[in-house]
Amino acid sequence: MDVLTAEEMRRAERDAIGSGAVTGLQLMERAGAEVVAAALAEWPALAAGPQRALVLCGPGNNGGDGFVVARLLRDRGWRVAIACSTTPDRLKGDAAAMAERVLSGADDLLPWTAEALSDWIAAGEGPVLVVDALLGIGQTRSADALLAPWLEAAPDVPAGLRRLSVDIPTGYDSDTGARLGEEVFAADLTVTFHREKPVHATLRAAGGHVAVRDIGL
Ligand SMILES: NC(=O)C1=CN([C@@H]2O[C@H](COP(=O)(O)OP(=O)(O)OC[C@H]3O[C@@H](n4cnc5c(N)ncnc54)[C@H](OP(=O)(O)O)[C@@H]3O)[C@@H](O)[C@H]2O)[C@H](O)CC1
Ligand SMILES: [K+]
Fold it and tell me: Ligand 1 pocket test: which of 87, 139, 191, 212 has the largest number of ligand atoms within 8 Å of its C-beta?
């Protein structure tokens, strides 16, 4: 199966949207649904009943996928906390639309601080699924600053933590597999769409699991 660069992936999305076959919003909805399906396939225990999830959303469409995942997990009865590295009013396009569909109000977001993330994790029982929807194929520079709250909160996470990255783990260059800075989101499972990107071979070589899911492109 061929491996796509970020630009080739963006072109495939643009062509599909441009042809009228699908909208960006539909692709984002499909992406979110595939992330949930892949997580349940990877960790069958998650399908046993409602669980807890902490969804970390970034400023762009990767974050948009995260808002879809959060909504779908809430629809399954899960206790889902959403933290966003930006404020909802600064989200754009499809990501803004998907945030609208899941956020029930300004207080429906955890503050983007290590304390808020740690407190939420400590306040509940049972294992946590953490979803990295911070940055995807659009990342271009070190994500050390962006990741800081999560990296500071992460050690407090109880055993049984499951870490899932949407499309590309935050902190990696999709086309080279190189780290863009010092820090990365250490995903147990990365769920990507349509075709693998070069980074996914790097993740596998380091012991990460990678699922490639069709979103109808
Ligand atoms: N387009 C679609 O219909 C679909 C897209 N999918 C998902 O979308 C992402 C790609 O989304 P995109 O918005 O292009 O990029 P990201 O979300 O990865 O990044 C968003 C912006 O973040 C800024 N950025 C880049 N690096 C950093 C950093 N280190 N720290 C902070 N911010 C950063 C950058 O904007 P700037 O203006 O700040 O440069 C990015 O634009 C893709 O990965 C998929 O998850 C759907 O899956 C399918 C449909
Ligand atoms: K990500």
Answer: 139
Which numbered atom of ligand 1 lies nearest the CA of 142?
Answer: 29
Interface predicted TM-score (ipTM) of this complex, two decimals:
0.96
Task: Please report the pLDDT score of residue 139 as a whole number.
Answer: 96
Would you give the distance in Å from CA 216 to the centre of its chain?
19
Sorted by where each begins, the domain ranges of the chain are 6-14+23-39+50-194
DSSP state of 174: T
Cα angle at 171 between 215 and 210, to 5 degrees?
40
Q: What percent of the chain lies above the pLDDT cut of 70?
A: 98
Residue 66 CA, ligand 2 centroid: distance in Å: 9
d(CA 217, CA 12): 7
Position 126 scores a pLDDT of 84
Rounded to two decimals, what is the model's pTM? Answer: 0.97
Q: Are 203 and 187 in contact (CB under 8 A)?
A: yes
Measured CA to CA, the distance from residue 55 to residue 58 in angstroms comes to 10
| Ligand 1: residue whose CA is nearest its atom 45 | 62
Asked whether residue 132 is marked as a ligand-binding residue, the answer is: yes
Reported as a single tens digit per residue, the pLDDT across 94-141 is 999 999 999 998 889 999 999 999 999 989 888 899 999 999 999 999
In the CATH hierarchy, which fold is given to the domain comprising 6-14+23-39+50-194?
Rossmann fold (3.40.50)
Residue 150 in this model has a pLDDT that exceeds 70:
yes
